[in-house]
Specification:
alpha/beta, Rossmann fold, ten-stranded mixed beta sheet, two-stranded antiparallel sheet, 27% helix, triacylglycerol lipase activity
């Protein structure tokens, strides 16, 4: 789990203090859930410190007059702005040499109606000299990055975050590897429209039509027409649905996708369990380093991620899709407080803080399972079994307790059975966390992208489904994200 960057110690008291600007914060000593509200207040202040732009105060994120719910077409470009070397530049935190833009475009909602959506583009310092498929001249290879769970309110859009949400875990690494990163926020995060959490089909539309919109932008001549999709967690599921969508309604130029730890929870299990091979390294015993830590207060650690906030986000999404659902019907009194707080913002970071150390039984009533089961089939139809538009590399870890290897493997096998022409490879890593697989899996997904753009078909996934266990060079690799950004 990531660590929050240090905040000036002199401000620490203010972080814990109740704030009149935040509704529902406790200022009453008799409040039974004062600790929840105070924890939320602290988390929201930390979240705001990592936010570049206030979405409600920004003119850019307002729906413009050139958008029409009846005549706008998916892929229409509505706005395009440069952030690098602009007055906004200092509000963002990204590596030197990269160029950052933001844009608004037209996508489709879950009912296939036009909606505004936003995103960012991050360009590398220069184009790779490697040849791209279909291009005789060197252009920057285009990758659509589909992000993992960020939250369910407008302020959760990655384009609003100082480090674009995934920083060195994803987008910076892609850009520094020579790819143009097109990062859709997903409609309803950033843009003023309904966001449907974990909705595979509309998020895939967000991804595909972001590529189309950038073809109409001032930087279009710098980028390849061809593109691939890479995503993690919720975004891994989106990368899967993008591949299916490009077989059903192609926008052109699609080369394949990489779902990393995909949260494809409607896949049908096949009761085949992956058995991890021996991953010992054969090295002799090496003396382990040990020294006392210095006295420092340079970091604010995020609590252990309980994952409970995912259920809150799912319930909120179900209620948006079905007006007859009252979320609080399925919540305990403590759950209601958390639900109301998360509806105000703060996103995953706030959810992680206020649910840390909790358990589902103290927050949700048993009946919630009936609602979330119906919701999941609404947002993720087909369970990953539709025809693919290109080759696909699944990347997952045995150590991921949030998205297991067996579910991803069952989805891959299921797709290959349903579609004899599918080309699916699955790289399985040992002992990496849900976030850690983004680092350990980088060599695999970069090699896939390199081969896809170079049209090295011999090195891309073969027809069918094939698993490869990736053995690390040592058995003592790090597993914790202990650095601060």
């Amino acid at each position: 789990m990531r660590l929050i960057p240090a905040i000036i110690i002199a401000l620490s008291a203010a972080l814990f203090a109740p704030t009149d600007a935040i509704p529902l914060l406790s200022r009453q000593t008799q409040d039974a859930f004062k600790s929840v509200r105070d924890t939320y207040a602290f988390a929201l202040n930390v979240f705001n410190a990592r936010t570049a732009v206030n979405v409600s105060a920004s003119a850019f994120y307002r729906t413009p007059a050139n958008f029409s719910s009846t005549t706008s077409k998916p892929g229409d470009l509505l706005k395009f702005e440069q952030i690098s070397r602009s007055p906004l530049d200092a509000q963002y935190a990204y590596p030197p040499s990269l160029t950052l833009y933001r844009f608004m475009y037209v996508s489709l909602d879950i009912n296939k109606a036009p909606v505004p959506a936003t995103g960012f583009v991050l360009l590398p310092y220069y184009a790779s000299s490697k040849v791209s498929a279909g291009n005789s001249t060197t252009k920057i290879r285009s990758v659509v990055w589909t992000h993992g769970t960020a939250g369910v309110t407008r302020d959760c859009a990655p384009s609003l975050r100082r480090s674009l949400y995934y920083d060195f875990q994803g987008v910076f690494e892609l850009a520094n590897s020579g790819f143009a990163v097109i990062g859709p926020d997903y409609a309803g995060l950033g843009s003023d429209t309904q966001f449907d959490y974990e909705a595979g089909v509309p998020h895939a539309d967000d991804a595909s039509y972001s590529a189309v919109a950038i073809r109409k932008s001032p930087i279009a001549k710098l980028l390849t027409y061809e593109w691939a999709a890479v995503g993690h967690s919720e975004g891994g599921m989106v990368a899967w649905y993008v591949n299916e969508a490009e077989a059903e309604r192609p926008v052109g130029g699609f080369l394949g996708s990489v779902p990393i730890a995909p949260s494809l929870f409607t896949a049908v299990p096949d009761n085949i369990t992956f058995t991890q091979p021996n991953a010992t390294d054969g090295l002799p015993a090496i003396v382990q380093g040990s020294d006392p830590a210095p006295n420092a207060t340079g970091q604010i650690p995020i609590p252990v991620d309980s994952g409970i906030y995912y259920t809150f986000f799912s319930l909120q999404s179900a209620a948006k899709l079905n007006a007859s659902i009252n979320p609080e019907t399925y919540l305990t009194e403590k759950g209601k407080v958390m639900h109301r707080l998360l509806n105000q913002g703060g996103c995953v970071l706030a959810g992680t803080f206020i649910t840390a150390g909790g358990n589902t039984s103290e927050l949700f009533l048993d009946e919630i399972n009936d609602i979330t089961a119906v919701w999941s089939q609404r947002v993720q139809p087909s369970g990953g079994t539709r025809k693919l538009g290109g080759p696909m590399l699944i990347v997952s870890s045995v150590g991921d307790v949030l998205v297991g290897v067996d579910g991803s493997a069952a989805a891959g096998r299921g797709n290959a059975r349903a579609n004899p022409g599918s080309r699916i490879a699955h790289h399985i890593f040992p002992d990496l966390s849900h976030d850690g697989i983004m680092y350990g899996g980088k060599i695999s997904y970069i090699e896939f992208l390199e081969n896809a753009f170079a049209n090295n078909t011999a090195l891309l996934p073969k027809v069918g489904y094939e698993e490869t266990f990736v053995k690390p060079v040592t058995a003592t690799f790090g597993t914790q994200l202990n650095f601060a950004l």
